[in-house]
């Protein structure tokens, strides 16, 4: 496997390397990277495979990749940091800093509601272009004008794309900078929410497996009735699940979309930098430890109004649930956020652990994808 996978692991984590290598041998990965920090120390730093299947460009040590919804954890952290710095209460109405938002029954919405997917604005009412999506003020204004689909704060549903412009508007109004600018300035220079041309050019190209491998064959712990509901929703272009996740329209292989700085799904980075973000978050460098502990405390759990399966959130961070399936060893202590098609960013305060896995072949658990799950399980087994 030396010609496919490069990097190093601490000897105690050799099993992680073996699982990572095996994922290329059996075709589950085209290209990918993984990094783990334990007590602030790097113990896994691996990469391998092909970054671009069209050109056979190899995945190198510093190849960045789009991480989809892993972005949400960084946007949430930026908002929490700004709220802490400014003394803004998460429970006060959004209208105290965003007066235009208080229409159509949204006046009582709080920043905590935005962070925990309870705002009731999971989808845009009209089609939005990638060009429009690059303007955070415009995107926020569109959402501010909308009527919520449910009374804010009364139920939760995954705001797949709108989350970024809702939460990001707090950062923008308080700091006069975009989420992407704030994140790079405060969290790490290789965390691009808004990738410049040279980064987009180097980025791994997103690919999809053959149609036969996209069938929902291994639902894991998800029951058959839930699978049936989800299957029907994802075949229906008018379903809330599809409207929430496919508008704005834009290919994540398109430099325009990557440059747009979509603050819920546009993070382009390396596994090393994403794990480094969680290392710093767990270590208290980004937020006070007591604030992190409170932020990861579960606020909502239950059937998601958008995804139609169980989801669970703290303040922007996901906890173990049907939409963030973790091994038993990680379930009670891990937090973070998965990304579409298999990426994951994860922190663990109790174990002083940070993990990131970033692939470029989009799969999901329901199509038999256990790549991140197996790597997380092996990491915990090595502790």
From TrEMBL:
InterPro entries membership: Beta-lactam-related, Beta-lactam/transpept-like, Beta-lactamase/esterase
Domain Beta-lactamase-related per the UniProt entry, residue ranges: 17-374
Gene3D superfamilies named among the record's database cross-references: DD-peptidase/beta-lactamase superfamily (3.40.710.10)
Residues that span the membrane, as ranges: none
Matches recorded under Pfam families: Beta-lactamase
PANTHER family, sorted: BETA-LACTAMASE-RELATED (PTHR43319), BETA-LACTAMASE-RELATED DOMAIN-CONTAINING PROTEIN (PTHR43319:SF3)
Protein name: Beta-lactamase-related domain-containing protein
The organism of origin for this protein: Nocardia macrotermitis
């Amino acid at each position: 496997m030396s010609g496919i996978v490069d990097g190093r692991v601490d000897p105690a984590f050799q099993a992680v390397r073996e699982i990572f290598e095996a994922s290329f041998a059996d075709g589950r990965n085209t290209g990918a990277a993984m990094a783990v920090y334990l007590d602030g120390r790097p113990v896994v730093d691996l990469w391998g495979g092909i970054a671009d299947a069209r050109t056979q460009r190899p995945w190198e040590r510093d190849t960045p990749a789009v991480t989809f919804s892993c972005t949400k954890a960084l946007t949430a952290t930026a908002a929490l940091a700004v709220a802490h710095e400014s003394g803004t209460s998460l429970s006060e109405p959004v209208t105290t800093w965003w007066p235009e938002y208080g229409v159509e029954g949204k006046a009582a919405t709080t920043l905590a509601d935005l962070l925990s997917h309870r705002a009731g604005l999971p989808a845009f009412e009209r089609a939005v272009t990638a060009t429009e999506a690059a303007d955070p003020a415009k995107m926020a204004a569109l959402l501010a004008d909308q009527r919520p689909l449910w009374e804010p704060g009364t139920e939760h549903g995954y705001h797949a794309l709108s989350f970024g412009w809702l939460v990001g508007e707090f950062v923008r109004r308080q700091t006069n900078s975009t989420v992407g600018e704030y994140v790079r300035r405060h969290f790490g220079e290789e965390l691009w929410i808004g990738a410049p041309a040279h980064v987009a050019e180097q980025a791994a190209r997103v690919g999809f497996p053959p149609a036969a491998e996209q069938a929902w064959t291994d639902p894991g712990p998800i029951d058959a009735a839930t699978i049936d509901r989800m299957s029907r929703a994802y075949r229906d272009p008018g379903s809330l699940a599809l409207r929430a996740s496919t508008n704005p329209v834009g290919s994540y292989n398109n430099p325009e979309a990557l440059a747009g700085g979509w603050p819920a799904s546009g993070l382009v980075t390396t596994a090393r930098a994403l794990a480094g973000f969680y290392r710093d978050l767990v270590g208290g460098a980004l937020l006070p430890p007591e604030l992190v502990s409170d932020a990861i405390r579960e606020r909502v759990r239950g059937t998601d109004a958008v995804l139609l399966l169980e989801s669970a959130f703290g303040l922007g961070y996901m906890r173990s649930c049907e939409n963030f399936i973790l091994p038993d060893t990680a379930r009670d202590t891990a937090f973070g956020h998965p990304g579409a098609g298999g990426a994951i960013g994860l922190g663990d305060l109790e174990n002083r652990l940070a993990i990131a896995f970033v692939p470029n072949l989009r799969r999901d658990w329901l199509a038999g994808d256990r790549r991140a799950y197996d790597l997380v399980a092996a990491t915990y087994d090595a502790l």
